[in-house]
Amino acid sequence: MRARHRIAGAAVATALLAVLGLVLAAPASSAQLVEVTGFGTNPTNLRMHLYVPDGVGSRPPVLLAVHYCTGSGPALHSGTEFASLADRHKFIVVYPSATRSGACFDVSSPQALRRDGGSDPVGIMSMVRYVHQRHGGDPERTFVTGVSSGAMMTNVLLGDYPDVFKAGAAYMGVPFGCFATTDGSSWNSQCANGQIVRTPQQWGDLVRAAYPGYAGPRPRMQIWHGTEDSTLRYPNFQEQIKQWTNVHGLGQTPSSTDTPQAGYTRTRYGGTGGTAPVEAISLQGAGHDLPRGGMAAETIRFFGLDSGGGPTSTPTITPTVSGPCQVGYTMNAWNTGFTTAVSITNRGASPVTAWSLAFTLPAGQTITGAWNTTITPSSGQVTATNAPYNGTIAPNATVTFGFQATHTGNTAKPSAFTLNGAACAVQ
């Protein structure tokens, strides 16, 4: 087992550092990669390295970058573009390092596959909290990416801690739970060879079981895989798509498909813009040798970190809201379409169960797809009802859903909302 890990990791390291020539010159700044010790609970003795660029703002974004088998945080720092992109866009990069034989991360044990269950995810979360507390990292702009074993960990962290990470990007990974074992081993040959095939619902249920009862928003996901990957074989690409579209309440039909460059096929689900809930890029003829070229920059674009890296707006105090509920409604419109994120907050003293939110879409707007809800009909006076996993809203809790729609020029918002027949305040 360990030999297989070493071979896979060595292939990645060789491809990343030699064949693809991704060893970059040191960033043109005084910032240095530093090791941090004593960062918090760390049951598996992971190491932590931190890169803080010169000139970061008071609430900088945070990127967790997770290495491949036989690798390390410093190797990923020097062998990918994330540090130079951090200099340009002013975000902090956290690099964990696995210290067990083979230097693979634990994505297999029952402890790793549940929130706060133990093993590597707990130590990694201590690193993230350390950066939030010591460096003022922005909890609303915290992201994770990883390569091979690190891509598997990206899937695991998004499942275990959906409230911490706003998005993830997995290079050559496998779905959450695919590598699970119960015999203490860390290698799952069936999964690695692409032989584990499940329904979208089954994959989604594995993610939801990692944090039972969680009904908040789920992180967006970007997935990269080469068709000729012989270490973590290509069927794992489609299985990840099935998993994360289901987690977002989406179907398997892409909202858009394009070819951003020769040999690349990109599909987006739940939206056609650059921040769709799920984005998947298949690379014809590529092996286990990603990221390469400008892929890291595309991940930073997907995360929304390429727009200056400044702090988020100063939080405002939400006024006291009378009534049993409050609705937030945020639109992102383009020429003939838009996506909308909707939040429902229960301001009452009792749980809301089997929720139903009614509102009227302005003229010319027609819903074409939705996630975390079912909406009927597609235009006019519509009703959004809960999904099977988010039907209860506890007092002072919030659930979110979203939808994609077309418009004929009218991008106005609904003026009123009712939750189970009661009028809601509009945020």
From TrEMBL:
CBM2 domain residues: 318-427
UniProt xrefs under InterPro entries: CBD2, Esterase_phb, Plant_Biomass_Hydrol_Est
Matches recorded under Pfam families: CBM_2, Esterase_PHB
Keywords, alphabetical: Hydrolase, Signal
Residues making up the signal peptide according to the UniProt record: 1-25
Protein name: PHB depolymerase family esterase
